Amino acid sequence: MGDVGDLAKQVLVQEGARSGRPDSQAALEHELADCLWSVLILAHRYGIDLESAFVRTMGELEKTISARLDP
Cβ–Cβ contacts within 10 Å for residue 7, how many? Predict the structure, then answer.
C-alpha cells in the first residue's frame, strides 16, 4: 500500500478502529518518519521550498476557514 497507507493503518490501530497494538508509539513514529522522508525527497527532487509552500498554504487555509466562519 505504501508509506501513506501504512500510516493510515497505524492511525486506525491507534484509534481502535483496526486490530493491532494501539500502544505502539514506536510504530506510529516510524510511519510518520517514513512519510516525512518521502515528502522531503519529493520536494528536493522537484525543487520545492517546503517552508514557503507550507506558509503559503496555511495562509490560504486560514482565509478559507475565516470566510466560512464569518459569512
Answer: 20
The C-alpha atoms of residue 27 and residue 6 are separated, in whole angstroms, by: 10
- At 20, give phi and psi (nearest 5°): 155, -170
Q: What is the 8-class DSSP label of residue 15? A: T
55, amino acid identity = V
Helix (H) or strand (E) holding 8, with range, is helix 3-14
pTM attached to this predicted model: 0.75
CA 27 vs. chain centroid, Å, equals 15
For the stretch 9-43, pLDDT in tens is 999 998 889 888 767 889 999 999 999 999 999 99
